[in-house]
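User: Please fill in residues for this 316-position structure.
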């Protein structure tokens, strides 16, 4: 029964986030906000809502491992799976925006700050407030440096179809689905971990992280098919920043989170390496299939490290 509840909860998270993403994008595009800003803010926040709701629910239940593992695993999957798939299916892409010069620091800085904060073994409300300030600083930077970005045009048909009432109602429904889905996902995931004798961290960093990263994957594939790779890269940078600041910070605001850096060093290191690879790709403009394959290799190492011991234990 827990498996059924978990699947239904993840589905509620995904569909709820989809409502929020679509309506947020419609509102933004109606006001001719640039494609990159839409990807880096509204879509990034929308696709990170499942992670944030899940981590806050986990923190409320005093399950710090689940709260942090969800964010760490999502950061890894966003780069090694979502971005990899986009590079593999998209046409050759030439970036108008210099991601390395403008945005690479925002892909790495929050990771290092989070690790530094974790050296004392916990993330408290003071740390959370600093993480929120970092997110706010990114938003200020983004809007101050987006004046030269190409603005997405909106045709008259879109304007006629737009309805504030419909968008508002769908936003409310989306938020309700995300909140309820997060609570049920945490309870069922904890029960599954207990049944199989695995740690909550493992469930969070693999299963929940993959489930809550599905909105990023779906949105990114759709954008890549339309040739909007810039929106995807903005989504990944903004989403990972939101995961490290808003998701972990939100969980820490509910309850102080205990961080076991020594115990989970592999996942922390892999998250850092994946972020460095993202910076390297943007620095050299390697938006191509070889870059996607390289990221998938990193994902394979992550999956092997996480799932091979379980498979071996089950087989024996």
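Assistant: Residues filled in for all 316 positions:
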């Amino acid at each position: 029964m827990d498996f059924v509840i978990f699947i239904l909860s993840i589905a509620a998270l995904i569909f709820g986030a989809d409502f929020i993403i679509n309506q947020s994008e419609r509102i933004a595009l109606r006001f001719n906000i640039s494609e990159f800003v839409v990807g880096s803010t509204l879509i990034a926040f929308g696709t990170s809502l499942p992670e944030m709701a899940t981590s806050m629910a986990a923190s409320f239940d005093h399950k710090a491992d689940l709260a942090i593992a969800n964010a760490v695993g999502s950061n890894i999957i966003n780069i090694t799976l979502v971005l990899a798939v986009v590079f593999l299916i998209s046409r050759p892409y030439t970036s108008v925006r210099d991601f390395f010069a403008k945005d690479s620091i925002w892909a790495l800085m929050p990771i290092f700050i989070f690790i530094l904060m974790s050296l004392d073994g916990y993330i408290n409300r003071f740390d959370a407030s600093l993480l929120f300030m970092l997110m706010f600083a990114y938003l200020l930077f983004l809007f101050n440096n987006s004046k030269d970005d190409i603005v997405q045009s909106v045709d008259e048909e879109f304007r006629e179809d737009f309805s504030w009432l419909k968008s508002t109602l769908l936003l409310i429904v989306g938020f309700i689905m995300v909140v309820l889905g997060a609570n049920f996902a945490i309870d069922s995931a904890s029960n599954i971990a207990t049944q199989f004798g695995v740690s909550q961290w493992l469930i969070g960093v693999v299963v929940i992280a993959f489930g809550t990263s599905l909105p990023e994957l779906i949105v990114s594939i759709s954008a890549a098919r339309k040739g909007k790779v810039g929106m995807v890269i903005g989504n990944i940078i903004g989403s990972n920043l939101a995961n490290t600041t808003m998701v972990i910070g939100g969980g820490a605001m509910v309850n102080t989170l205990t961080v076991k850096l020594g115990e989970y060093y592999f996942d922390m290191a892999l998250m850092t390496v994946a972020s460095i690879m993202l910076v390297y790709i943007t620095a050299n403009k390697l938006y191509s299939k070889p870059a996607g394959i390289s990221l998938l290799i990193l994902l394979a190492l992550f999956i092997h490290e996480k799932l091979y011991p379980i498979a071996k234990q089950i087989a024996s």
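For context: The longest helix spans residues 164-196.
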